[in-house]
Specification:
Blueprint: E1 7-9, E2 12-14, E3 20-21, E4 24-25, E5 30-31, E6 36-37, H1 41-58, H2 63-79, H3 81-92, H4 96-119, E7 126-128, E8 137-143, E9 147-150, H5 164-172, E10 176-179, H6 185-201, E11 209-212, H7 217-225, E12 231-235, H8 238-250, E13 257-260, E14 266-269, H9 271-290, E15 302-306, H10 309-324, H11 333-347, E16 353-356, E17 372-377, H12 378-383, E18 395-401, H13 404-412, E19 419-423, H14 429-440, E20 445-448, E21 487-493, E22 514-516, E23 519-521
Parallel strand pairs: 7-22, 9-10, 9-12, 10-11, 12-13, 14-15, 14-19, 15-18, 17-18, 19-20
Antiparallel strand pairs: 1-2, 1-11, 3-6, 4-5, 7-8, 8-21, 16-17, 22-23
The structure holds NADP nicotinamide-adenine-dinucleotide phosphate.
């Protein structure tokens, strides 16, 4: 499919503005030939107005029609073939094996939402029939309306134009306006083609989907401020996510922002675990920290251990392995610069000792940074929040604890995270429980004897956590529950059966599981 470098607004290409940018190959730092047009304020407005109009139609669609559309989106992505993989590889340097896996994850999660819709119980129909002194109350979930999606830099497929936020919003029945990430504009345009093809094939209104290109904050700010947008899905930096959250809150009519902003993902390793599996844990940790050149929001960036000879040996072994591990490619110049600045600031801290890396590689042909290990004390972490900052790359920080009380006090002082992890032995099950549940308070997912990178797309997944990991700790951006960010419950009181959505009608014509007078049933009333 020939690329245009233009925005896609309700199935039409559009390039009103004169400002352009180019995609850059992180392997060679070379600039592509095709100019990509920054969307103008008017184009943002046109996209949202089209989405508002599309919503008037889509909100009446049965779940089965939306499921068919999602299935078509997944099929259209597959028809992009290897062109998609090569384009994304040129723009991100992530490599074909990783991108092939990410494409399968992306189409898999879209199809999983289609299955969820076909099964039907996701509508969460709850019925309390009329009782003496109590009216009939019947509620279910409805789509909120047009959703703004900010694509992430580090997942050009799974958290981007047709990624988890888009799939869950579309599944909810919401049109989407996507702000493409400037790190992969060509990849984004290919995805836009696939979604538009599905829109046409399934007869959806053109405003169901629009793609806005942009390499500055204006496009995103205009989008979030637009009164037609009802919710925002975002994956990226704390600074960006917080700015979008603040912009949404400043609107005359504020809207929810579901921002997933990263995390240091604390890992606690007990002395018993070290005594038994020191080498194995070191290998697993290094693999997890360097996977994808460390550019995962679930990267284990803070490791807490009681100080001992075994601990010091373990840290020395991890540092050696990190030093020996290959230098990976970073996604783009901004990420390389951001990483260098964040590590330099931490390394300059009086309580920090650098054990490996912490320096840029001069004259490299590709965007990169040395694999880095740093060490500090638990007391220093408690004394200075800046030591909890995310280093988005192949970097980890060890914090030595004087004893278990020092460790527990430090866990109390941790900020919100996406994950927390414990490495311990079976023999410690009784003694470790309190600590594990203390860590639970700081994260959305608790991991036992594993590593946080790798997020399974399943119903039970929780990918979220207390601020600053996210702006909405009660929600997830991975797994089927992600759909509820873009739905809201509405209750009907004493409304006649004929006026109710089919999911709430007495005969239960959809045959879905409902909670009727406190009992789950798929029967009629
Ligand atoms: P980012 O800078 O937060 O940008 C993400 C998106 O938000 C981009 O489309 C960006 O637009 C837009 N944006 C940023 N600030 C904005 C603002 N004030 N108003 C409106 N829109 C705004 O994230 P990134 O480019 O992916 O990477 C930068 C850093 O984010 C990384 O170094 C890393 O620290 C962190 N990060 C975290 C995760 C994670 O999973 N938690 C993932 C990726 C990155 P423009 O780029 O066009 O300005």
């Amino acid at each position: 499919m020939p690329l245009t470098g233009k925005n896609t607004i309700a199935s039409e290409v559009s390039a009103e503005g004169a400002e352009v940018f180019y995609s850059i190959d992180p392997r060679s730092k070379t600039t592509g030939d095709l100019p990509f047009h920054n969307a103008t304020r008017n184009e943002v407005d046109r996209a949202v107005v089209a989405a508002v109009a599309a919503f008037q139609e889509i909100r009446g669609y049965p779940s089965s029609k939306i499921a068919d559309f999602l299935t078509e989106v997944a099929a259209q992505i597959e028809t992009l073939g290897d062109d998609l993989l090569h384009t994304a590889d040129r723009e991100t340097g992530l490599g074909l094996p990783r991108l092939t896996g990410e494409r399968a994850r992306t189409t898999g999660q879209i199809r999983a939402f289609a299955n969820l819709l076909r099964e039907g119980a996701y509508l969460r129909a709850i019925i309390n029939t009329e009782q003496p002194g109590q009216p009939a109350i019947k509620q279910m979930q409805f789509p909120v309306g047009p959703v703004a999606v900010f694509a992430a830099s580090n997942f050009p497929f799974a958290f981007a134009v047709a990624g988890g936020d888009s799939a869950s919003a579309l599944a909810a029945g919401c049109p989407i306006v996507v702000k493409a990430h400037p790190g992969h504009p060509a990849t984004s345009e290919l995805f836009a083609g696939a979604i538009n093809a599905a829109v046409a094939a399934k007869g959806f209104p053109a405003g169901t989907f629009s793609l806005l290109q942009g390499n500055g904050i204006d496009v995103g700010q205009w989008l979030v401020a637009h009164d037609g947008i009802e919710a925002v899905g975002f994956t990226g930096s704390l600074r960006g996510g917080r700015a979008i959250y603040d912009a949404a809150s400043r609107r005359p009519r504020p809207i929810p922002v579901y921002a997933e902003m990263g995390s240091v993902n604390p890992v606690v390793i007990t002395q018993a675990a070290l005594a038994k599996r020191s080498e194995e844990i070191a290998d697993g940790l290094v693999a997890s920290v360097t996977m994808g050149t460390g550019q995962f929001c679930t990267n284990p960036g803070l490791i807490l251990l009681e100080d001992s000879e075994a601990t010091r040996d373990f840290i020395a072994s991890v540092s050696e392995k990190m030093d020996a591990a290959p230098t990976g490619i970073l996604l783009n110049e901004a990420i390389a610069a951001g990483l260098q600045s964040a590590v330099s600031e931490t390394a300059a801290h009086a309580q920090i000792e650098v054990l490996a890396g912490a320096e840029a590689i001069a004259d490299s042909d590709f965007f990169c940074y040395r694999n880095t290990v740093m060490q500090t004390t638990a007391a220093a972490i408690r004394a200075d929040d800046r030591l909890q900052v995310e280093h988005f790359g192949p970097v980890t920080l060890f914090a030595l604890c004087a004893d278990i009380n020092d460790l527990r006090a430090t866990i109390d002082a941790l900020e919100g995270n996406l994950t927390s992890t414990v490495h311990a032995e079976e023999a410690e099950l009784e003694s470790i429980g309190d600590l594990l549940h203390q860590l639970r308070e700081k994260a959305g997912r608790v991991i036992w004897n594993g590593f946080p990178t790798g997020v399974a797309v399943v119903h039970a997944m929780q990918h979220g956590g207390p601020y600053p990991a996210t702006t909405a700790p009660g929600t997830t951006s991975v797994g089927m529950n992600a759909i509820y960010r873009f739905m809201r419950p509405i209750a009907f009181q004493n409304v006649p059966d004929a006026l109710l959505p089919r999911a709430l009608q007495d005969a239960n014509p959809l045959g879905i599981l409902r909670l009727v007078d406190d009992v789950y049933t798929d029967g009629a009333i």
